[in-house]
Amino acid sequence: MAALFAGKALVANRERDAVETERELSLALENKVLLLYFGSGQCPRCRRFSPLLKEFFVRLTDEFYVERASQLGLVYVSRDETPEQQSAFLRTMPRRWLALPFGDAFTRELELRFAVSEVPAVVVLKPNGEVIAGNAVEEIQRLGPACFRNWQEAAELVDRNFLLAEEFDDWASRSITDPIRRLKYKLDKTAEGKSKGKRREEGEESS
What is the pTM of this model? Predict the structure, then answer.
């Protein structure tokens, strides 16, 4: 799915850093069902639907509700009128959401590609980019998180064997410090061994 956004930058929700390298896009999007949410914080229909989508996403990805986050990603494709409006809307949405930068010309290309004429619209994509649902708004309203199982089966997802982003960061930090801890442990054990040997020698001399 990262191929869809190759050469593009995505904005991490409420973060200044852009998700733009091939590795970053792969970590964020590969082997996931991807939702493209075309919406606006000012659209009355979007204001009614967005809280439902937020709850839908959170219940599938937040550890408060699930032991392991579902293989689900979301990119917000904005029809907001100003960057301030887009930022204000995203601040009310989950941090794991990604977004196209405000005013990005790729927005129009996506609208044409997936025949989006009005908002709200949620396009559901397989990891290879094939469309599962052209607009899942009604399905999400009707079934809630239960509809993800249908998408998961349609997408034929490979069972994920990589870590979540937060876990990966923790693992990375541990992997950097582990050699230092192991070296310290080795030095401590060496010093301890020398100390024991010295005490043994002193004991033999005294006897």
Answer: 0.74
- Is the CB of residue 38 less than 8 Å from the CB of residue 111? yes
Task: Give the DSSP letter of residue 159.
Answer: P
d(CA 151, CA 126): 8
Query: What residue type is 71 in one-letter code?
Result: Q
Q: Residue holding tokens 């994509």? A: 125
Question: What whole-number distance in Å separates Cα of residue 165 and Cα of residue 27?
Answer: 7
Q: Is 101 exposed, middle or buried (0-12, 13-18, 19+ CB in 10 A)?
A: middle
User: Which domains, and CATH codes, for the chain?
Assistant: 2-155 (3.40.30.10)
Tokens describing residue 145: 């998180």
Q: Which letter does DSSP use for residue 16 in this model?
A: S
* Longest CA pairwise span in the chain (Å): 96
- The contacts of residue 95 (CB under 8 Å, 6+ apart) are 12, 13, 14, 15
CA distances from 45 to 108, 123, 181 (A): 20, 16, 56
Q: For 148-195, what is each residue's pLDDT tens digit?
A: 999 999 998 876 544 444 444 443 444 344 444 444 444 555 555 556
